[in-house]
Amino acid sequence: MKSSRRKVLVGIAAGMAAPAILHWPAGAAEFTYKCGTSLPDAHPMAIRVRQAMQKIKEESGGRLEFTLYTNSVLGGDTAMVSQAIAGALEMYTLPLDLLAPKNEACGIFGVGFAFANYDHIWEAMDGELGNYLRGLAEQVSGLNMVKWSSERTKPEFSSQIEADAQAANSAGFTGTPSFLIGHTGGATKTLEYQSLEDPSSFNEAIEKQLKA
Question: In a 3-state reduction of DSSP, which class is residue 20?
Fold first, then answer.
């Protein structure tokens, strides 16, 4: 029996799934914000952003509610930047290296093989490079660097990073973007693709799942 297309899960780690449609009741939130990102739905950052959004909703007594749109469903990065500037999109998780044309230092995160491993990254971020980047960040209005520095030293923060890294390793990810495909509630496997601009690899994998 062929599976319904609705039951095919594509994109646990990079995804093509559309966001849920939310229906607001009479006692809806006083403020509703949209947040766009090009990250896949199951990316660690997307997961943590959703957790933060839920916590904000709870601590605001339901007055402030967010909807996170992943997988570039609101458009590509440049499109979402334009939407945020125009006020059509309240929040956007910006890949920092997109700001490299404005400030070359922002391009450090897009330099391939700049860091040997995670220990090397944290050593750099705790050293002169981190101090320099934090100096740039302090120039951004509304960004609380004191709180950021305090939060990132908490044990649970390191535990979350370790858990995310283990999940990626268990899935067999070797880089980004990475994709998993499978049926909802069932086993998944890594999706091999030729190019992000050529959908044939994705279409073939989806059709194979539908016929399984």
Answer: coil
- CA dist 28 and 35 (Å) reads 18
**Residue whose C-alpha is closest to residue 164's, from 68, 49, 74, 43:** 43
- Can the peptide bond before residue 40 be classed as cis, meaning omega within 30 degrees of 0? no
Residues of the chain with pLDDT under 70: 1-28, 140-143, 174-177, 185, 196
DSSP assignment of 139-196 equals TSTT--HHHHHHHTTSHHHHHHHHHHHHHHHHHT--SSS--EEEETTS-EEEPP-SBT
Number of Cβ within 10 Å of residue 205's Cβ equals 19
Pairing assessment for the beta strands 64-69 and 31-36 based on DSSP bridges? parallel
